[in-house]
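Cross-check.
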Amino acid sequence: MLPYQARYIRDKSRLILVEKSRQIGMSWATAYKLVSTTSLQNSSTDDWVSSRDDLQARLLIEDCKHFAALLHVAAADLGQTVVDASKNSAYVLQYANGHRTHSLSSNPDAQAGKRGRRILDEFALHADPRKLYAIAYPGITWGGSLEIISTHRGSANFFADLVNEIVHKGNPKRISHHRITLQDALDQGFLYKLQSKLQPGDERQAMDEADYFDFVRRGCPDEETFLQEYMCIPSDDSAAFLSYDLIQACEYQPADPWQTDLLDAKGRLYVGVDVGRDHDLTVIWVLERLGDVCYTRTVLTLQNTPFDAQEDRLYQLLHLPALRRACIDATGIGRQFAERAQRRFGPYRVEPVQFSAPVKEELAYPLRAAFEDRSIRIPSDPAIRADLRAVKKETTAAGNIRFTADRGKNGHADRFWALALALHAARQSKTAGYAQAVAVGSYHGGSL
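Predicted model, tokenized:
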């Protein structure tokens, strides 16, 4: 174990909080700590680990099994087991002394009524960290510890509140605090450990610590993402129009199939297109409405792509039988793009949208409302998350509202506006009714 891992493993405090960089081996250290301590205990309580999702819950048990074998600790994998009357389940590893490690999914209610050591992994990424803490904390009343481990997810997150209490408000909860940035990990030997696991020929084999630091930084969609994901500096939610909590609550987990064959769509499809060419991206966002929820089915991102190739990709979607409406950015270079699509597919299937300050306001607020009531679903993707976070609402000296975003290698918040346009298409189609659309469907090359 590297020094920062060893310090955490040796920490026996009742309350522990670890704010950390991504991918520096803390899950590995957590599994070792569980096995090396749990297998030697003689108390009547078990360990309860809350993971971000089902996959991570399973991987933790696999890591624990590895260390059990390494330490010659007898352990039996009991598989996925129902752990309470509410039918919450966990992956369970039982040791020879009767102790069990339960690896749960992210449902906070699964922590209710349990006693013993709690580990809340990737705490800030849970849908409701405050509720999770409130349910988990009473479980250590009769012994055990509560350990919170996470990367940051915005300054308005409860995890950031706990860190702020520790650092700036005298640490009233008396939490043992660990903070490990990517730079800290590199200074303590992380790169050597990583290179020992990489395949020969991997470009990172030839890097030193400074090279690797720059390599990770360049790979992030923007500086805000790098600082948060790797340097333990939470993003400022007061500046962004969409908070991390809102975005995260509507993300698909990695195991969820968000890309599907659009010919087999069960619901109606809606498209939003933000047009770019050289500096900005062209983003084509496809939503499928199922009940009251709009699910992301495809996000096409085109850069430095000729307009005729962009039109080919868009027209394939506009021909789909389930496609009801597309809203296309008709500002600047997008005007001819939108007009050509409308001439070919008709005004009820294609709506050009001229961006102006009032129009952007009309698009942005319904998008935020959809995140607030969780009536939209998006893939869990760093580039999408960065674009959604990039838009900021500003008030001018004259009292007018405007929405701005910095231009960078990730574009100019192009995914934000493509999603807003797709949602606008769904809202407009829903309110307008379908009688007019049916009347023009056969003429424009696709049955509605």
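Residues 433-448 have pLDDT under 50 and may be disordered. Residues 414-432 form the longest helix (19 residues). Passed to J.P. for a second look.
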